[in-house]
Amino acid sequence: MPRIPVITENDELTPAQRRVVDGILGRRGGRIPGPYRLSLHCPEVTEAWHPLGEVLRLKSTFPLRLSELTMIVAARAMDCDYVFNAHAPTAIKAGLAESVVDALVRGDRPKFEQADEEAIYDFCMQLHAQHAVSDAAYARAQKLFGTPGVVELTALFGYYVMVAMTLLAHEMPLQQDARYRLSRKA
């Protein structure tokens, strides 16, 4: 049970909420994504948040396999089943090995076959766990993705950590078709 009402496009909305919802629906194919259904209680935040998400998710310079990996690594870092379930199937369809997804579900370090995937994992997990990225992990990511790429990677990871925090804080119910339950390690 969510801590606050989950807003839908059919609810009675304030003029500010309606303006933001209409903008989202016009660009999102007629549905409001989960986190916005919570953040719409503060439409000004959603109005600023949504365009950033569109740029990071829909206009990423990363191939879909890598951008979706970044999203599920953020979900794993935050133990957020909702984000993981929203993005793991797309990551697999885009070419991420199921063994990587399965390891993330267990909370284990995946065995990567792709150097770019390992670089993203190391960069993001170091940033999350240590609040810093080692010189070696940073240099590897920068060599693979360039300076604009490490800036985008940092923003994408941070954005999905913020999404996860929103869903977790307000206790967004898990999707009905959710397949994954992230293990929690002490």
Topology readout:
Blueprint: H1 15-28, H2 34-39, H3 43-58, H4 64-78, H5 81-93, H6 98-106, H7 115-130, H8 135-169
Helix pairs in contact: 1-3, 3-8, 4-5, 4-7, 4-8, 7-8
Note the main attributes of this structure.
AhpD-like; 186 residues; mainly alpha; 67% helix; 2 domains; globular
Outline the structure in words.
With 186 residues, this protein is mainly alpha-helical. The protein has two domains: 15-58, no CATH class; 64-169, AhpD-like (Up-down Bundle). Helices cover 67% and strands 0% of the residues. It has eight helices and no strands. The protein has helices at 15-28, 34-39, 43-58, 64-78, 81-93, 98-106, 115-130, 135-169. Helix 4 (64-78) packs antiparallel against helix 5 (81-93). The longest helix has 35 residues, at 135-169. The two termini are 25 Å apart.
- Which ranges are low-confidence, i.e. pLDDT below 50, for 5 or more consecutive residues? none
> If helices are DSSP runs of H or I spanning 4 or more residues, what is the number of helices?
8
Tell me the β content. under 5%
Q: CATH topology of the largest domain, which one? A: AhpD-like
Overall average pLDDT: 94
Shape: globular
Main sheet summary? none
Number of individual domains: 2
CATH class category of the largest domain: Mainly Alpha
Distance between the termini: 25 Å
- Classified in CATH, the superfamily of the largest domain is AhpD-like
Strand segment count: 0
Name the helix and strand elements from N-terminus to C-terminus, one letter apiece: HHHHHHHH
